[in-house]
Amino acid sequence: MKGKSRQDCQAARRFHSWRGAGSFFRKMFANPLTTSAILLAILAPLVIILSMSRLYDENGIRTILAEAHGALFDILIFGVLVVLINKMGERRTEIKRYRENIFDCRYWDSPEAIIRTASNIRRLNDLGCSQVDLNFHNLFKANLHNTNLRGSKIIEANLGLASLSNSDVSEVNLEGTILVGTELVDADLRNSRLVECDLRGADFANANLENVDLSGANLLGAKRLKLEQLKTVAALYGASLDPHLLEGLQEECPEKLVDRGGHYRVNDLELFDRWKKNKEKVSQQYKEHVG
What we know:
Elements: H1 2-30, H2 32-53, H3 61-104, H4 111-126, H5 227-230, H6 243-252, H7 272-277, H8 279-290
Helix pairs in contact: 2-3, 3-4, 6-8
């Protein structure tokens, strides 16, 4: 029994060693670039040895050297080219798959769908892709910290209480999206469209709002939003603002509150003419209007 068990143990060791070797070679040859490098490393010495052995054969040396070096050139140039094309194809396939996974979660209202969508966004970022279609997605409380969403479409989505801190959200269409309580700390929102967005309680600490369209947006109760930030936006026509911010805009840059047609509207109140005549009276009316 002892001899049999010893033989079984030796056989198991051999099996595991073979299995480990097979796994090693599978990993080695799984990467086309690694395979090409191995073939080049093996064939190059052989070509050199054959070339050296034929140095005194004047009739065959020229043909051998020409063919051998031509083969090496083919492996080096065309092999690398094929690998690069293959990698580009794999990248496009992966990007397409991750985008399809995001689309499948569009109307799936569950915490699992939110986690899956956020994970696929990060995988796309790892592949150098930032443009994502998140229209109508539910990303409530999603962790999108330090992500790149530049040029994405996020129309009428739910990003309430989500984290977009230190993220690139520039040139994004966020029209009608819910951003209540969203963390936008150090976020880059340049050239984005936040028309009719609900931004109540959103944290704007150090957020870049340069050339952002906030027409009709609800900014009541926004945290750490400064007048200096609002001075850089493209438009605030029809936006809901806290009184101290509204007064500052009326004083320093009232053009931000005027639409392209020259209309002036704050919280659905046509105040432009009255504001020009009596700023204090308008400010008092606004305070009474918002509560």
